[in-house]
Each structure stands twice: as C-alpha cells, then as structure tokens.
Amino acid sequence: MITGPDVRLFADDPMEFFGGSRHAMHTMPPHDLAALQLAALRLRFTELRDRLPVLRAMADEQGIDGITRLDDAAPLLFPHTIYKSYPASLLLEGRFDRLTTWLSRLVTVDLSGLDVSGCDSIDGWLDLLDGRTELRLAHSSGTSGTMSFIPHTREQYTRLYDIVRLEVLPGPERSGERLDVVWPGFRTGRSGIDRHAAAMAERIAGSPDRFHSAHPGPLSADVMFLAARLRAAAARGEAGRMEIPATLRERRAEFEEAQRAAAAGMGRYVEELAERLAGRRVVSLSLWATYHEMAAAGLVRGIEGLFAPDSVIFPGGGAKGTALPADWAGDVERFAGVPALRYCYAMAEVIALNLICPRGRYHIEPWVVLYVLDPDTGAPLPREGTRTGRAAFFDLLADVCWGGFVSGDEVTVDWSPCGCGRTTPHLSMDIGRYSDRRGDDKITCAATPEALNDALDFLNGALL
Amino acid sequence: MGAPTIPAFVRGETVWDDPVAFGGTGEACAFRAPDPVALLDRLPLTDPLRMRDLAEITTSDVVDYLAELGPRLRLSVNGFLREALEHSAAWSDMTPEVLAACYEQLPSLFTPEAVRAVAEGTVGARFLDGWQEVASPGGGTAAVRAVGARAVHVIAGNSPIIAAITIIRNALVRGDAVIKTPANDPLTAVAVARTMAETAPGHPLTRHLAVAYWKGGNAAVEDRLYQPGNIDKIVAWGGLASVRHVTRYIQPGVELVTLDPKLSATIVGAEAFADEASMAETARLAAVDVGALNQLGCFNARVVHVVTGLDAAGLERAERWGELLHREILRLPAAVSTPARWFDPELRASLRALRTSPDWYRVIGGHDDEGAVVVSRVAEPVDFHTALSGRVANVVPVASPRDALKAMNAYTQTVGVYPESLKRRLRDLLPLYGVQRLVSLGYATRFRPDVPQDAMEPVRRMVKWIVDESCSPGDVHPLGHLDRRAEPWGRS
Which InterPro entries match (chain A) (predicted)? Predict the structure, then answer.
C-alpha cells in the first residue's frame, strides 16, 4: 500500500525513501516500482500543470487532463527544442529581461523580481540566476545557432551526489569521509557536464584542495556560444559579417588564457596528478574522449597504475561521433590503475548517472521513469521484454520544472530483471544518436576543443 | 513483396550478375544490385582512344537520338519506369503520385527544342561539333573545341529529373559517363539507360554510358575507380557526406565539379498585402514554391520573408497570410504535392515546442503531418529552418526587404520574389549575400537545364576545352612576345 507521504518522500528524497541503500533502490519488484513512479508522476503533474505555462499549453494542446498510466505522460515529454524555443536574437542582443520571461514559463520559481538590467553577457545572466535563485541552468554548446537552457535546481544536483557518495563511500560510518576528485576539464562552468563539477567538489571532495581540475578557469558560456556561431558563420561564408560584441572584446585576456589552457592539452595535467595523487583513491567523472586523451598523455610519459585500484572512474557521453580506438578503455584502465571503468549514461536534461552493472548494462535509476518510444511516431513501446527505440525520461526529482524529456538517443532496453540481480530496466551499452543521420543540433554536455580554439583564434585575429 | 533486384548498365549491356543487398534497415534490404566490385573491370573507360567514335557525332545526331528516346520514356509505354515507380516505396521519399508526375515530365526534357536549348544555352553547339575560330588580336589564328571527357556522376535522388538530365548532358557533350546512382533513386538512371539500349543498341551514345549502384564511400570501389587512368572528372551532387568521400580522390588529372546542397527562400514585398486579392494570389503562388515535389528539392521555399512590418497590424497580416499559405499548400493537386511519405520526427517535435511559445511563434496546422506554417513574431527564422521539410514553411515578418538579406548565405540557391519590381531592385544585391538564382514567386521549382546552375555552368565544366593555335613567321614573329627588339625573322 502506497501512502501519500511515501510518494512524496520517494519523489523528493529517494535516498531517504530507500534508507540510504543502493541495493534497495535497484531491487524493488518492477510492478511496485512502476506503481510508485506512477503515483509520483501524478503528484508532479497535479502540482505543476497550472504553474508551468509551457506544460499547460502542451497538455491543453494534447487534451490531457490527468494521468492514469505511465504511458499517458508520453505526449507531455518535452522535446529538446523546448529549451531553446526563444528567438536567437534575444541572446545575440543581450535581451536578458525577455529571456528571463521566457524562462519563467518553464519553472515555478518566481523570477518577477529579478533585476537583469546589469547583465551584459550570458555568463552574467547565469551568475545572477545562480546567486539569487535556487535554479541552476545547464546550457548546451549552441551548435545550431541557439543555446538551450535546461532548468534544474541546486537541490537536484546535491541529492544526486549524495547518492553517488553511496557508490563510492558506502555505509553511514563513512559519511564524514572525503575523497580526491579528478576533474579533467575547466574548474567551473554551466554546461550540462560542468554543472556536475560544483556538486562533486562540494559533496565528494569537500574542500577546494581535494578538487583537481585540468584548467583553473571557468568555461564561459559566452565563449562557447561565440565558438558555435563562428563555426556556423564560417561554414556559410558569413564570417566576415559577424560582429563581436564589445563586452566580449573586453574579455580578451580571459579568452586567451582559456585558449592557452585548451592548447596545452593533458600533458601538464597528468604530470601534476602523478606528483600529487599517485597511489591515492580518487573519484572522477568525464567524457569517454577526454579520458582517452588523458590516458594517451599519461602512457606516453610512462605513467601507469596512477591511482589506487579502488578508485572510481565514471566515463559518460559515449563516443560522440569521434573515432576512439577499440582499446581506449583498456588504456584508461592501465593509466589509472583501476580494474574496470564505471560507465554512466547521463545527459544534461536528466539528473541521474544510470551506472553500468557488472553485466555491462546501464541501469535506470528508480527516480527516473524510462520510456522507449517509436522513433517515427513517438508512441511509447510496451514496457516489457526487449525494445529498441528513442529513449525518453521523466525525472521525478524535478519539482520546480517539468522532468519529462525526449532524447535523441536510440537505445535497446530490457525490462526484465538483470543477471546482476538488479530489477530496474537496463540498457545495452550500444547507444546511437538519431540526429547523426541528419546532422541536426545535438544537445551535448561539453564543448569540443576545436570549436573553442576556432573562436579564440578568430577573436584574437579580429582584435589585433 | 521481396526487395527488387536492380541491374547495372554497362556500356550498352544490362548486367544482373552477383546481386548483393543494399539499403533498408534491420533485416530487410531496400534492393539488390550487382556486386560493384565485380563490375570494376568493365565500368570505366580505361582507354580514352575509344572515345573516337563520339567525335563523329554532331549535335544534330544527339538531338535526333534523344528525340527518338523521349517518346519511349512515357510512363504508359515504358515498363522499366513503371517498375521503378512500383518499387519506389522501398527507397524514395516521394509519394507515388508525385513521383509519377515527375516521370510524366521526362519526355518533355528530350524534345529537339529542349535539347537544342540546353546545347546552345550551355556550351554552344558550334564548339561541340567542331573547331570554332576565335578572335586573335595579336595575330595568327586560334580555334577552340569542346571535347567530351570521362566522368563519374555521383547524382542525387530526390528527383528522377536529375538522372535524366545527367544522361542528356552526357550525350550532348559526347562524354563517357559512369553514373553512380543514389540509394533514394537507384532505378531511374538504369531505366533510361535500358530504354536507350532498346532504342539504339550499339549506338556510341548508348555505349558510352554505365550506371551502377555502390554505397558512397565504399573504398573497395572508389579507390580503384577514381583514378586518373579511368576518369577525368567527378561531378558530385548532393550532401556533404558524398562530397567528403570524393575529395579524397582529387588529384592532378581528376577534376571535381560539386553541385552542393542548397536551400531556398522567398521574399514577398509589401505590395502583396495591399488588398485581399493580392494576399490570396501571393499565398497561392508561394504555396507552389513550398509544396511542389513535396518540398524535397533544393529550390523549394522554406523560409518566406514577408514585408508586413512588425507592429501589431503587421504581425496580424503575416499570420493571416500564413493561414492562407497553409490552406493553399493543402489545396495543391496530388500530382504536385502530397503530405510527406515520412514526416521528420525531429521537426514534429520542434513544432510541438514552438506551440508552447506563443509570445514568439504561431504554428498553423501540422497536427496531422499534413504540412504546417510557422509564423515568427520577430524578424528572424526559427533556429531549425534548415530542417524544414514535409511542406513546412516559416513565415518571417520583416520591416523592409533588406532585412531579409541577413538570412541569405552561400547555401541560398533560389530566392522567389514578389513583385517583379522588387526582384529587379534586389538582383544586384542578393548575389553579394550568396544567392544564386532569382525567380518570380511561384516558379522556384520550374527547373531550366539550359541556364547556369548554382552560380556556375556545370555543362561547360563537363567538357575539355582544347585549343589549336596557328601562326607563321610571316605574320607573327616567333620571338616577338619575348623580345620586342628582336631582329627581323629572316631565312638563315
């Protein structure tokens, strides 16, 4: 029997609900979990429908008044374009007042009193939102010419990393323990993956000296956006027509520093890690390609078995169209000195890591409702057996915004219990991108180094 | 119904050997065709001397040859084309109605008038038929001749007209063509070639043609085929993906002619909104540019800039015109336009997203994938404008026609303009923004093979331009161009 308070606790604080047990989270009988998820989804729909104009518009359009089955919510899962459904000129012209109005339709947080008159850059706007509200927007790389802003809250990231702590420091007796975090990227930033940096620094490292990033500086949203626009403009033969805003020209030194950092590569970083962290137990989260680059830089310098074998490395993001050598993972394991990598299936839109099990399957976290949709019609496929289709999710942790999201990923799910003992639905590691067939804007949680370098080269050229 | 087997056509002969499966998803393949690797020995013309037979053929001969072929390409009498139509669902993005209408159009491309227009409008028959004297202001004489070359044509398949026009062009320039068919139209070029073999077996124009399918980028084929010993040129249509493969093979002796993927736009001047009748008429014309051939062509309109202004009254006019446009798109006859065979789910999702953003966008229609009009409420296209397809247009209100220019770039092929007076005013300006073709509103999809294409002249680039210069010491001093003070040339 599920009670109202149970449902709320499950949705708001799954760690508490499951008694701080990762085992409990992934071994609930599937039928019970589905019932619990349905109750929590109904709770979110009831509470958010009339407070989120975007959700209300979509529900009205689809004629959906209530949810009686999990599948009823499928037409309400947001397409990724929702998060950039504003004219690009708002961003180009720095109309942060109107962007704030746009954002207010996606969140229940009251933004009416927010004074954005002092914002003259995306970074400035995000700074203000971070400082004055609980919102933590994750931005995309902006490759289509518009930048997506995906709303989350500080609380969501905190709750996620309290759960990740259970993976790396299980048991209440270790609650005070801290671990060194290896972060092979910019120290701070607000792209999908970079939002994880702050949460890891706080919940796992605990203090700045235990958080080891490759670059000391922040990764600027303005630079990423400019990089994406410059690439697009160059491809269209319009580069000569592009104007660099004065606010960006003034930040030239910062960009040059970022360029130096990006050009330096991983060599200096792995040497520093070898000096500081050899033999220590570390936790790390990054992209497949980044780890490959890092391992290559380390191995060429003779650095092998660097960390303690019980260190935890979380590679995510897949190959992202880059051609990684077949044995890249072996190189990373050899370099880091860990017997196996802990792959995660994560994305900017959903606050979960969906870690891999010993059987090589990504297990969907219980607070995330998985949907596998027909790629052409968007209709949900039956929640049983093995199915291949477009992955979509409802993140039940989302309480000030709508957690439903349709990804661009082609996944194969098995709804039956896994050989590893977990009962949560699990995905094959073979994950494709539907957009690769069309070259459409991809929501990615990381900027490509080439895009950054292009922008910075262009900026420096234009400023000389 | 199993997947059809599509033969290759090798220099007059239909080849069915060693069929292998291509295309499709999962277990099912779209079609079978001869193993391209097994064809490699016969596909190219390794000995250019064997083009000698083409030198004897005049433009009149070509005109006669194609005039005889044309009537046999009527769908009612051509079994090969009917077969192509029957199986088209396995690969084509076109609906059968629209594809059938394209096939009905084929014979008109082969009439003597049409073929002569291409010959004269592109290269000039006199250069193709013999040595043409050109002016020689420095003395002596010179003659120029356009000589056929050996080319691989990597063609696009969004319209069967592309296969037909490639065969016509190759015949006119007396070239030797290997046509690499695309997976979305593997049959039209073969069907025309087989009709040629039936009409004029053994004719040099029939024997200097090969048609085959292989997957673009298949190195086992392309490493061997794309060599200077086999070909002089590669004419590549379509997506970056296909051109990217081809660029690997560009080297001295192999020239690349690219017909890049493009998009097209529309500018509708303020005159269109002066009264109800003008609004109705321009919406009807614009609907043709958007919807004809199911918006699969590069010349189809996608973003439609309307000079309505951006005040409340202007936005209201733009929305009302958008409603008219949507209605007119739905009213297009089925032979011209139908709802898409496959509506892009990403685009459907984008339309869903914009419906929740009424401050900036109004989405008209599209609930049943029948086609839609997105009216922007600011002077900028939607960010997914390059993905507009399935009869979806974006109407963008602007204050002045010049505001529309910002959206034009090197990918802009055609711009349909209303009225004519505005087109005249814009025609010197638009090319600076990358625009390559201006047309009267409503005629964007009326392809003319006798004028330049994509801001260049592909047919002129399909031939080799050979010169023959004559001088004698009597009229031109052999050292004169090097040494102005040279002693008079006398007998030694």
Answer: ANL_N_sf
Of B353, B361, B409, the CB nearest to A79: B353
Q: Please check whether residue A105 touches B, CB under 8 A.
A: yes
For strands A312-316 and A282-287, give the pairing. Answer: parallel
- Asked if A89 lies within 8 A of B410 by C-beta distance, the reply is no
For residues B248 and B269, state if they share a domain: no
Shared domain for B309 and B298, answered yes or no, is: yes
pLDDT at A443 exceeding the cut of 60: no
**Nearest CA-CA distance, residue A81 and chain B, Å:** 6
Longest dimension (CA), chain B: 93
Q: Which residues of A touch B380 (CB under 8 A)?
A: 87-89
Domains contained in chain A, number: 2
Nearest Cβ partner for B409 among A79, A238, A375: A238
Within 8 A of A82 by CB-CB distance, chain B residues are 353, 356
CA distance B118 to B122: 6
CATH code assigned at B59: 3.40.605.10
> Does A145 sit within 8 Å of B383, measured CB to CB?
yes
| One domain for residues A156 and A267 | yes
pLDDT of residue B219 exceeding 90, the answer is no
B408 assigned to some structural domain = yes
Which chain A residues are within 8 Å of B413, Cβ to Cβ? none
Chain A contact for B260 (CB, 8 A cutoff)? no
Q: Domain of B342: which CATH number? A: 3.40.309.10
Same-domain pairing of A400 and A454: no
The mean pLDDT of B484-490, rounded to a whole number, is 86
Q: Which residue of B has its CA nearest to A57?
A: B356
Same domain, A58 and A157: no
Domain holding A59, by residue range, is: 1-78+361-442
Q: For residues B236 and B249, what is the distance between their CA atoms, to the nearest angstrom?
A: 12
SS3 B312: helix
Q: Are strands B19-22 and A386-395 parallel, antiparallel or unpaired?
A: unpaired
Q: Is the separation of the CB atoms in B257 and B236 below 8 Å? A: yes
Closest CA to B167 of B112, B103, B102, B109: B109
Beta carbons of A105 and B356 less than 8 Å apart? yes
Whether B357 has its CB under 8 Å from any CB of chain A: the answer is: yes
Which one has a higher pLDDT value, A57 or A461? A57
- Per-residue pLDDT tens over the stretch B22-54: 876 545 678 899 999 999 999 999 999 999 999
Task: Say if residue A421's pLDDT is above 50.
Answer: yes
Closest-CA distance, B359 to chain A, in angstroms, reads 9
- pLDDT for res B365: 97
| Domain annotation covers residue B58 | yes
Query: Which tokens in the block code for residue A117?
Result: 């008159």
So what's the ipTM on this one?
A: 0.84
Asked if A7 has any chain B CB less than 8 Å from its own CB, the reply is no
User: Same domain for B185 and B323?
Assistant: no
How confident is the model at residue A47, as a pLDDT? 96
Angstroms from B224 CA to nearest CA on chain A: 25
Regarding whether B285 and B239 lie in a shared domain, the answer is no
B140, B59: one domain: yes
Contact B118, B449 (CB under 8 A): yes
The answer as to whether A2 is a domain residue is: yes
pLDDT tens for B456-470 read 999 999 999 999 999
Q: What is the pLDDT of residues B330-350, one digit of tens each?
A: 999 999 999 998 898 989 999
Q: Which of A6-15, A314-323, A386-395, B121-130 has the lowest mean pLDDT?
A: A314-323
In a domain, A288, yes or no: no
The residue out of B394, B409, B440 marking a domain boundary is B440
**Taking CB atoms and an 8 Å cutoff, what residues of chain A touch B454?**
none
The answer to whether residue B130 scores a pLDDT higher than 70 is: yes
Structural domain total, chain B: 2
**CB-based contact B346 A434, cutoff 8 Å:** yes
| B379 min Cα distance to partner chain A (Å) | 9
CA angle A123, A128, A131 (to 5 degrees): 120
Dig out the tokens for B277 from the structure. 């009748």
Strand partners, B163: none
Nearest CA in chain B to A374: B345
Do both A256 and A159 map to the same domain?
A: yes
The number of residues in chain B equals 492
Question: Who contacts B280 (Cβ-Cβ below 8 Å, separation ≥6)?
Answer: B324
Interface contact flag, A85 B361, Cβ < 8 Å = yes
- Quick: pLDDT tens for B399-436: 999 999 988 887 888 999 999 999 999 999 999 998 99
